[in-house]
Amino acid sequence: MDNKNVEERKAAYFSGMAMLIIAILLSVLSVFLLLWAVGVSTFGFYLSAGSILWLPVSVCWAVVVLIFFGLYILKPNEAYAFTIFGKYYGSINEAGFYFINPFAFPTQISKDDTGFSITTAGATIWKPAIRKISLKATTLNNEKQKINDQLGNPIEIGIVVIWRVVNTAKAVFNVDDYFQFLSTQCDAALRNIVRMYPYDIHNQEGTEGADELSLRGSSREIAEQIRVEIQEKVDVAGLEIMEARITHLAYSPEIAAAMLQRQQASAIIAARALIVRGAVGMVEQALKELSEHSIVELDNERKAAMVSNLLVVLCGNKDPQPIVNSGTIY
What we know:
The protein is of the alpha+beta class. It is built from seven helices and 13 strands.
């Protein structure tokens, strides 16, 4: 079979409980035949019959051993991918007690788990090979990365990805180690997406753009694009990306202080623009009401002076100091 086109299929199996009962019955039968053969040989009766009895005893033991080699128990959300003589035999991904062809063995899912004893720091430990494939939703929390955004500003960003295995054959045979494969593809997808967008968007007036996407202002949309990008890359490994979230987003330390000053300046400009627009509206309303109610008649020069004074009062950073004029304004 061409491993590049491995597709998942269900392995042939029998009821594990039924085969276990058969194994127990064969064990009892073998013990009975063994005692019979020993008794016949001990007392010297029917020596030929005693020799013949050893054959079914040996057959029963061999069958019992093969049955026990083929018994497997699966818990919910676990799976096995079996191979027989180097070829893909099939997968089982439902909880239960099964009997599989005893010559079919579950495939090791990670090359790092050798199953041999290894020595670490002078101590010998046992590292069994992992053969069960977990179908549970798993969280991958990659380390923070330093990436340049669309404007070339270095930023630190981290994501968390929730994923699961949906095709055991692809996960085991199409990639060497699907854990490492997923982590690498997450890093690559994150870099591709982050480079397409700026950290933040501000126009010349200091107001944030409403229609354009940014990493800070559109985190949900960006996270969805990252999820789609990762999904396209890991389809070959039989993985499903359920969700991707941005967990950390900040400017790199070397430019964080400068960018903070820029944000503060943008916020001040935006606030000033709002204050000026409000002050102009208030002055316009004041002049309109004075004219409509004929409270006072002001020429252009007095109107200009009044506008100037009102704008100073409304747009100033400090509270105004009132001056009482006891005389005439003319």
